[in-house]
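The records we work with from here on pair a chain with its fold. These numbers are not coordinates but entries in a learned vocabulary of local backbone shapes. To see the layout at work, look at the sequence and tokens printed below.
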Amino acid sequence: MFDSFDPIRMLYMIPAVVIGLSFHEFAHAAMAYRLGDRTAYHQGRLTINPAAHLDILGLIMIFVAGFGWAKPVPVNFYNLSGNKSRGMLLVSLAGPATNFIIAVIAAILLGAFFWDTPYLDGIVSQIISINIILAVFNLLPIPPLDGSKILAGLIPGTQEWLYKFEQYGMIVLILLMVTGIIGKVLGIFISPLFHLMSWLAYHTRDLF
């Protein structure tokens, strides 16, 4: 996520990471609630309060190792109304989709209000970057990431492979990160999205 220690950038990243992770997990909880599963609601996860979602170790790892995690939102597959696979797909998609929406809103705000505002422009820029990274990273079809459940919902039939693969997913994910493969794959999608957000911020600035 970053190449060298930069204390100023870290200060910008803290609110961006907290916002990105909190809204990501809240979106999962909100979609599950809408589809009939109250599990996250009863555990106090239907909120944007960071205290309900942040995992301290996962948060530290973001700044130390470049990747981390929040507390997974509990979802009971059997409580979802209608087609269960489609429901799980929507719950899983809600997190990355929310991160992308936040990035778009932040780009518009950057162009409209914060383009030349010291500190605030740095925070808003990091909100854009972090949320794009979270959206794309979580769409990878590797358990326990959201992309694996989205893929399972798109493929007809029961996906037993997902449950068998899930116990090895984190190992595979770490290996891909250590070898740099995952960074190259993410770059293919992240770089164009960065340019799109920059274009949106720039043209929003022209309107104001």
